[in-house]
Design goal:
heterodimer, A: Penicillin-binding protein 2a (Domain 2), seven-stranded mixed β-sheet, five-stranded antiparallel β-sheet, 24 helices, 23 strands, B: mainly alpha, about 70% helix
C-alpha cells in the first residue's frame, strides 16, 4: 500500500476543509451583517402571476368564454400572527370582511404557507384596501382570474367543458403549471388548453417588512393565452337546444357538421347543466342532484354514449351492397312482410310488407326485409369493412372523440360473448341492430363521405387560433384521413333514396317535406329491449326504443349534416323527425339556411 | 475496570464526535421542522438511538466475518436497487425509496456501506499490490450500482458511491497510467453522461455555474441557503430563532439543507466546530487505516474516511453555494433513517477494525 498517496489524499481533504472554512468565514463574518439585514429587514418572495386565459369565440366571432379579474387578499401567518386580533378588527371595520373560523384557524396554526383571507373582493373593497394599506401590513392583494361563460356558451356546456385548478398529479406531471393556474378539465377548454392557457409569470422580489417591493431580483414575464375561434356556430347551437327543449323530449343529442370540411357546427347533449355554476364550483347538494338525475346531464351523450343506430345504418349497408355488386341500382327485389331462415322469422316493421322494390324505394320505406336479404348476401364481414371504411368505430379525431363505437364481427362475438356468429346476427346487423353500437357523433360519419364525394375527413372543432409569436391568426385547415373509392353514381343513388325518405309517397320522414328547404335524410328506430312485454314498454321511459334521424340540407349542395338522437324517443319518425323539422325552420327563419346557396 | 472492558478498543476521538453529531441532529431537526411537522424530531431520535446502538454493538463483531459476507450483501444490494426501479416510491420526482409498509428505505444509501466492504474484500485478498485485474473487477463491481443509482436519478449518491472506491484504488497503488487513462475517459465521456442527466439535474448544474440562467428554482435555493448561513453571523440567532431557513422555501431544510439551519441559528463558531468534527472523524479513521496491519481493514478505513469527508464536504459546499445541489445528506446530521443507519454501520465497522487491531496487538505484546 502506498503511504505517500494516503498523505496526498489527506492533504486534499485538508485543503477542501480550509476552503469551506474560509467560505463560511466570508459568509458569516465578513458578509454576515449584509445577510443578516437581508434576512431581517427584507424578505425574498416569489410572486407568481397567472395571465388571463385566451378567449373562446364561435366561428362568427361571438364571444363564448373569457377571463374576468377577481381580487383576493392573502397573508403569510407569521407576518400577522402577533397582531391578529387588531387586524381582524380593522378588516371588519374598514372592509366589512369577517374572517371565517376556518381561515382564522389556518392563520393561528400556520407559519409560512400562504393563506387566502377573502376571495372576490368588490371594487369598493379593493379601493379601501389600497387607501388604508397602513392598517393591513402583512396582507397582500392579488388578482385571480375567473372564467366567465357568456349567454351563448350556456347552450354548450359539454362542448366547452370547464376549467379548474390542477390536481396534485397534474402539478407533478407538468412543470409549466402552478397551483393557481386555471387549466382546462374537459371539452374545448381541455382540448385546446395549450393555446388557451399561456404561461405563468414569476418574479423574485425583495420586499420590506411592510410588503413593499424593494428590488426585483429576477423576472419571467407571463404570456397570456391565445384566443381561439371554434368551428361552432353559437346561433345554431341555441337553435338546436331550443328545438330539442320545445319537443318535450328528455334526453338525447344533436350534432351538426359541415360535410365539406367536417367542421363541427354544433354539438348538443341534452339535458345540459349550468356551465357557469359548474366552473365556479357546485355545492354538494347541486352535485348530488346532477349525479342522481336519470337523464344524466353531466354525461356527454353526443361523444361518449354508444347506442344501436337502427335503420340509419341502412345507408352504409346499401352503399356496400351497390359497390360490391350484390345489388344493381334499379334491380328490384321482392320484400314481403317477413323473412325466414329455417325456423327463425324476421319481420318487417310495417306488417304490410314492401312489395317488389329497388334500393331507392327500400331506403324510402326503410324496408327491413329488403335489407335482411341484401345483408345476408353481403355477409357480416363486408358490412363491418364498409362501416369501418367510413370511420365508424374509429376515433377520426382522438382529441374530440374519446369513445369508440362498436363494430362487431365473428371474432369479436367469440371473444366477448363466447358464441359463434349466426346468420341471424347478420340479419339484425343489416338493419343496424344487434351488436352494433355507435356514438351519436358517429352517425354523422355515415353521411359525410356520401355528400363530399368519398372523403373521410378529420372532424374539426378549431377554426383558427391566435399565434402569439407571429401576432396573427392562423387558420386551421381540414385534414383528409382517406378517400373512399366508390362510384359517384352510387352516392347519387343513395342521395336519391334519402330524398325519397322525405318526399316519397311512402317516405318515413314525410313531415320534413314541409320544411322550408329541400333536404334528405334517414330515420332510425333502435330496439333497446327485445323481450319486454309491449305493455310495460309503453309505460317505462328507459324501455323505449331509441329514435334517430340523420339529415342533410340543402339537398342540391349540402352544407349541413344534422344528426338527431333521442334517447328512448320511441321512433325516428315520431320524435327525431319533428325536432329536425323545427331545427330547419328556425335556421331558415334566422337566415342561416336557404335554398340558393 | 468493567467499564474499561466494555469499551475496550473504542476510539473516543471517533465515538464522541459522532455521538455529538447525532445529538445535535435531533436538536436542529426539532428547530427546523417543529413549526410544520410535530414529530419528525422524535423519529430522528429513534434513528439516532438505532445509530448509537449500532456503534455500541458492532465493534464486538469481528469485521472479517462481515467482509466475507460482502459478496452476498452486494447481491442483495443490487437486487434491491433493481427493485427500486420497478417498485420504488417516487419522492420529489426521483425513485430512490422502497416502501416497506411502515417506513421507506433507500437502498442506494446502504449500497455505500456494502460497496466499501466488497472493494476491500477484492483489493485486500491475494497479492498486496493492486493490479489491472483487481482494478477492473473493482471497477465493474462499483459500476453496476453507480449506473443503477444514476438511473433513479440520483447523481449525488452515485458520485458518493464511486469516490471511496477511487480512493481505495488510488491508495492501493494502482498504476498511474490507468488512473490518468480513467480520468481522461471520464472527461471525454462527460458529454455522454450530460445527455443522460435528467432535466432537473442539468438545471441545477447550470444554475450553479450560471445562477442567472435559471433563476427561478435552483439558484433561488442556493441564494436562500447562503442568506440563511450568512445571517447567522458569528454567534447565530439562537436556538429556534432562525427565520430564513424556516420561512423561505428551503424545501429540504431538515434533510439536505440542515447545515443552513445550523449556520443560521448557531453562527460561525459552531459551524466551524461542526466542520472540524468531520475533519477529526475523517482524519482519525485515516490514521487507523495507516496503523492497522490487515489490508482489508486498511482499505475499509480509507474508503470509510473518504466517504464521510467527501459527503460532508460536498453537502456543506452546496449549502454555502460552492457546489451544485446534488441531493446528498450530511452524515449523522440530516434527517433520515437510511443515512443514519448506513453511516453508523460504517463507523461501527471501523471501530471493529480498531478493536481487533488492539486485541491482536495485546496478544503479541
Amino acid at each position: 500500500m502506498n503511504t505517500d498517496r494516503i498523505k496526498k489524499i489527506i492533504y486534499l481533504f485538508i485543503i477542501v476543509f480550509i476552503i469551506l472554512e474560509a467560505r463560511i468565514f466570508y459568509l458569516q463574518v465578513i458578509k454576515g451583517n449584509y445577510y443578516r439585514k437581508i434576512s431581517e429587514k427584507n424578505h425574498i418572495r416569489i410572486m407568481i402571476t397567472n395571465p388571463p386565459r385566451g378567449k373562446i369565440y364561435d366561428r362568427n366571432g361571438i364571444l363564448l368564454a373569457y377571463d374576468e379579474p377577481l381580487f383576493q387578499i392573502y397573508t403569510y401567518p407569521y407576518l400577522i400572527k402577533k397582531r391578529f386580533e387588531s387586524i381582524k378588527k380593522d378588516l371588519e371595520r374598514i372592509l366589512q370582511i369577517d374572517i371565517p373560523e376556518k381561515v382564522e384557524k389556518k392563520i393561528k396554526n400556520g407559519y409560512a404557507n400562504k393563506v387566502i383571507i377573502q376571495k372576490k373582493l368588490t371594487q369598493i373593497q379593493v379601493k379601501k384596501f389600497i387607501d388604508n394599506w397602513q392598517f393591513f401590513e402583512g396582507i397582500f392583494l392579488e388578482v385571480q382570474p375567473r372564467r366567465v361563460y357568456t349567454e351563448y356558451a350556456r347552450y354548450m356546456p359539454h362542448l366547452l367543458g370547464y376549467v379548474g385548478f390542477p390536481s396534485e398529479k397534474e402539478l407533478k406531471e407538468n412543470p409549466d403549471l402552478t397551483a393557481d393556474t386555471l387549466i382546462g378539465k374537459s371539452g374545448v377548454e381541455k382540448i385546446f388548453d395549450k393555446y388557451l392557457r399561456g404561461d405563468y409569470g414569476a418574479k423574485a422580489v425583495m420586499v420590506d417588512a411592510k410588503g413593499r417591493i424593494v428590488k426585483t431580483l429576477w423576472e419571467k414575464q407571463p404570456k397570456r393565452g391565445s384566443d381561439i375561434y371554434l368551428t361552432v356556430d353559437a346561433r345554431v347551437q341555441k337553435i338546436i337546444y331550443d328545438a330539442f327543449k320545445e319537443s318535450g323530449q328528455k334526453s338525447g343529442a344533436v350534432i351538426i357538421v359541415d360535410p365539406k370540411t367536417y367542421d363541427i357546427i354544433s354539438l348538443l347533449s341534452f339535458p345540459i347543466y349550468d356551465i357557469q355554476k359548474f366552473s365556479d364550483g357546485l355545492s354538494k347538494k347541486e352535485w348530488k342532484n346532477l349525479l342522481k338525475n336519470k337523464y344524466k346531464p353531466l354525461f356527454n351523450k353526443a361523444l361518449h354514449g354508444i347506442y344501436p343506430p337502427g335503420s340509419i345504418f341502412k345507408i352504409t349497408v346499401a352503399l356496400a351492397a351497390l359497390q360490391e355488386g350484390v345489388i344493381a341500382p334499379y334491380q328490384k327485389i321482392y320484400s314481403g312482410p317477413q323473412f325466414q331462415i329455417g325456423k327463425w322469422v324476421y319481420r318487417n316493421w310495417d306488417p304490410k310488407g314492401c312489395g317488389k322494390i329497388d334500393v331507392i324505394q327500400a331506403l324510402e320505406m326503410s324496408c327491413d326485409t329488403y335489407f335482411y336479404q341484401v345483408g345476408l348476401d353481403l355477409g357480416s364481414e363486408k358490412i363491418s369493412f364498409y362501416a369501418k371504411l367510413f370511420g365508424l368505430g374509429e376515433k377520426l379525431n382522438p382529441e374530440i372523440e374519446q369513445k369508440k363505437g362498436r363494430i362487431p364481427d365473428p371474432q369479436w362475438k367469440i371473444a366477448k360473448i363466447g358464441e359463434p356468429w349466426y346468420l341471424g346476427d347478420t340479419v339484425n346487423y343489416s338493419i343496424g341492430q344487434g351488436f352494433l353500437a355507435i356514438t351519436p357523433f358517429d352517425s354523422t360519419k355515415i353521411l359525410v363521405p356520401v355528400l363530399n364525394g368519398g372523403y373521410v375527413l378529420k372532424p374539426k372543432l378549431l377554426k383558427a387560433y391566435f399565434d402569439m409569436e407571429k401576432r396573427r391568426f392562423v387558420k386551421v385547415e381540414t385534414q383528409q384521413i382517406r378517400k373512399i373509392y366508390i362510384k359517384r353514381f352510387f352516392y347519387n343513388v343513395i342521395k336519391k333514396g334519402l330524398y325519397q325518405v322525405v318526399y316519397g309517397e311512402r317516405g318515413t320522414a314525410k313531415l320534413l317535406s314541409l320544411a322550408p328547404v329541400k333536404n334528405g335524410g334517414k330515420t332510425g328506430t333502435a330496439q333497446v329491449f327485445r323481450h319486454k312485454k309491449r305493455k310495460e314498454k309503453i309505460e317505462k321511459w328507459y324501455l323505449q326504443n331509441h329514435a334517430w334521424f340523420v339529415d342533410f340540407v340543402p339537398y342540391k349542395k349540402p352544407r349541413y349534416v344534422i344528426s338527431v338522437f333521442v334517447e328512448h324517443g320511441i321512433g325516428g319518425s315520431k320524435t327525431a323527425v319533428p325536432i329536425t323539422k323545427s331545427i330547419l325552420e328556425k335556421m331558415y327563419s334566422e337566415g342561416i339556411l336557404n335554398e340558393s346557396r | 475496570m468493567k467499564a474499561g472492558r466494555l469499551f475496550f478498543g473504542y476510539d473516543f476521538y471517533i465515538v464522541f464526535p459522532v455521538s455529538f453529531l447525532i445529538f445535535w441532529s435531533i436538536l436542529n431537526i426539532y428547530s427546523a421542522t417543529i413549526h410544520e411537522y410535530k414529530n419528525l424530531y422524535l423519529k430522528q431520535a429513534l434513528y439516532g438511538t438505532i445509530g448509537l446502538g449500532i456503534l455500541l454493538i458492532f465493534p464486538r463483531i469481528n469485521y472479517r466475518k462481515i467482509v466475507n459476507l460482502s459478496p452476498f450483501l452486494y447481491i442483495i444490494g443490487i437486487l434491491s436497487l433493481v427493485a427500486v426501479i420497478f417498485a420504488g416510491t417516487t419522492i420529489l420526482g426521483a425513485k430512490r425509496w422502497i416502501s416497506l409498509g411502515l417506513f421507506t428505505i433507500q437502498p442506494s444509501e446502504f449500497m455505500k456501506f456494502v460497496l466499501i466492504l466488497i472493494t476491500a474484500y477484492i483489493l485486500g485478498s491475494g497479492k498486496e499490490k493492486v493490479d489491472g485485474k483487481k482494478a477492473l473487477t473493482a471497477g465493474l463491481i462499483a459500476g453496476i450500482p453507480f449506473f443503477l443509482t444514476m438511473k433513479q436519478p440520483d447523481l449525488g449518491t452515485a458520485i458518493t458511491l464511486l469516490i471511496p472506491v477511487v480512493v481505495m484504488l488510488f491508495v492501493g497503488g494502482l498504476n498511474k497510467k490507468i488512473i490518468y487513462g480513467t480520468v481522461l475517459t471520464g472527461i471525454l465521456s462527460s458529454p455522454f453522461i450530460w445527455d443522460h442527466l435528467k432535466d432537473y439535474q442539468k438545471k441545477r448544474i447550470i444554475a450553479f455555474i450560471n445562477p442567472e440562467a435559471d433563476p427561478f428554482k435552483s439558484a433561488y435555493h442556493i441564494l436562500q441557503s447562503k442568506i440563511a448561513v450568512g445571517s447567522g453571523q458569528i454567534t447565530g440567532k439562537g436556538f429556534l430563532q432562525g427565520t430564513q431557513s424556516k420561512l423561505f422555501f428551503l424545501p429540504e431544510q431538515h434533510t439536505d439543507f440542515i447545515f443552513a439551519t445550523i449556520g443560521e441559528e448557531w453562527g460561525f463558531i459552531f459551524s466551524s466546530f461542526i466542520l472540524i468534527l468531520y475533519l477529526i472523524i475523517g482524519l482519525r479513521i485515516f490514521y487507523w487505516g495507516i496503523k492497522v496491519k490487515d489490508p482489508e481493514g486498511k482499505y475499509i478505513c480509507f474508503g470509510a474516511g473518504s466517504l464521510i469527508l467527501t459527503q460532508a464536504f460536498i453537502n456543506i459546499a452546496m449549502t454555502i453555494g460552492l457546489a451544485p445541489v446534488v441531493g446528498i445528506t450530511l452524515p449523522f446530521l440530516s434527517y433520515g433513517g437510511s443515512s443514519m443507519v448506513t453511516f453508523s454501520l460504517i463507523i461501527g465497522i471501523v471501530l471493529s477494525i480498531i478493536r481487533i487491531h488492539k486485541l491482536e496487538k495485546l496478544h503479541f505484546s
